[in-house]
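Our collaborator T.R. sent over the components below with a one-line note: 'Predict the complex.' Nothing else. No constraints on interfaces, no templates requested, no preferences about which chain binds where. So this is a plain run: every listed entity goes in together, and whatever single assembly comes back becomes the starting point for the next discussion.
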Amino acid sequence: MNTIFALAGVAIKELYRRKDFYVLFIITILICLVMASVNIFNDAKIVRYLKEISLLLIWISSLVIAITTTARQIPAERENRTLLPLLAKPLTRMQLILGKFLGCWIACGLTLLCFYIFFGALAASREHQLPLLNYFQAATLHWFMLGVVVALSLFGSLIFAAPSSNSTICFVFVAGILLVGRHLDQVAVTLAEPGRSITYAIYYAIPHLELFDVRDLIIHNWPLIGWKYFGLAILYALAYMAALLIAACLVFRRKAVN
Amino acid sequence: MLSSRTFFLLFFALLVLCFGLAAALVPEFQSWRGSRAQGDIFKVLMGDSRALFANHFYVKADEYYHSGYYPSIFDNRAAFETPHVGEDTGAINSKNHGDEEGFLGSPRDWIDAFGRHFFPDRHTHLDEGGPADDLSGSDNVREILPWLKLSADLDPDNVQTYTVTAYWLRERMHQTAEAEAFLHEGLRNNPDSYDILFELGRLYYESYHDTVRARNVWEVAVRKWLKLDPDAQKENKLIFEQITTHLGVLEGEAGNYDQAINWLQAAKKVSQTPGAIQQQIDAVKVKMAVPTNAPAALPH
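Returned assembly:
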């Protein structure tokens, strides 16, 4: 376990050495502050549009950080010729995958923490309330969704030749699920066979990442999600993370490292 | 091999050429009909395509009015054909039918059933308390305003955006001055709009109790409506009925009963409920028969 945490620590250090997070965080802050300065009919209490823009930027930034950070982990080790010396140490391939995954996922969690603290402060400055439990649920679900994305990206980095192609495919896949994942069954009904069965199969097979997108509940101040359903969603995400990591381990076990 | 002096002279000559070309072309560009340089930032960035996005933001305001409970393109939108933010002003013909409470229907499968715990799944209106069902928070309806303003900025020719925004500003947010300024902005962009003039008249009459200005504005609105071709008049009967009915009420309250009857009869001709207008006419006639300002009869 210590080996996995040591590897994870390296991935976390890489995140704060690179400029991606700082750039995205500062851009998010700047855009939100500019939008907050807009005068809308002399009413300073209007806040929901600001929450929406802020959360949209947080989602985009977090996905960019998660996918790009993870996609280059193993290809960079291979390119720098450090993968073989790494595996020469008492370290199994499975531990390497788990370490990389954990590092990227924790790094995403740390960035989310910064983003949500900023979001909470921004919303509280206008709304004069801080629904901490709602924000906790939203941030946690967001983090577990990123866990699935990180596992997917790690799996992709073992299949696709270059980090750029892996990143692009992951972005398209994740955006597709977030935009139409919930409606694929409605689309399937309108199709003829075999399109209908194929679409239904895709609908049941894909990780429904849109379940973790509770932005509307936060923006419009809806009550808390039932804790039972919150827990089930976490289990759902953990199941997909495990499945993707097992698939990554299986692929990596047979992969040439030089 | 060219010397650095030659490079400097060449650079200077090019600068002069650029400056000269710009000085010659800019006036022509400014007066060119297709120039975007005269408009706001949206016009500069998007040109005429900005109007395509305006409707999206108008619908976004309606989505906010429902606190996020809104049908997607995959759902049954029959109950949301006309945005409720516009429908609730009473000035727009509604095309809505069907069940606005349950456009989602019953859960289709376990993923759909489970997913409904993670997005707004109940029909509410912001001015009726929103998701918290707390009427004290009904002024949260202000949250629709940014999207309406953005929609108006993107498509300044859409009259409905101005009238709907002014309605919510005046009626629910009690921001009469802002509503008036916004209507004037709409009127500058659409000088022939009888809809905006009608809303402006309502603002003068109901909020400022300024009968004279309300009458003037509504009479201008009637004249603008009468300039429409017959087909357009047929499509816009509702607004004519509303203007003339309001003028009838105004004249009736001012004691100009003949004028009031004239306006109400004009409204009756286009109304889908002529019986109700006739009742108003009868009420005015009763008032006419009772001379309220006549001196009381002196005892002999």
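Summary for T.R.: Confidence is low (pLDDT under 50) at residues 294-300 of chain B.
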